[in-house]
Fold this sequence. Notes:
With 103 residues, the protein is an all-alpha fold. The chain contains four helices and no strands.
Amino acid sequence: MVFWLIKDFAWLADLKLLGMGMAVPTVLLSYWLTYKSRKNRTDYFHNLAVSFWITGNSMWMTGEFYFNDGIREWVKPFFLLGMAIIAYYYLSDYLIKKRKDIQ
Length: 103
């Protein structure tokens, strides 16, 4: 979270070197935490969604810094995947709980 906040601050302040320097550990750490949380269903799905979100966020920043915001269309799937993962988690969690209530 700290890396993500620094990255976003650098993006806001147009500090390209700091922003790009924070993007790499932010993305890597988010996927590492996702891997580490794989045994806990709730943590895993939330961390996976956040990882896709941070990846998209970092790509968007890169596009604004170096590509005149020209890669925004490439970024949308990462945000959509993050939202889809969370939607899947909550829908499946609801159905699992409902099934337990019926039994």
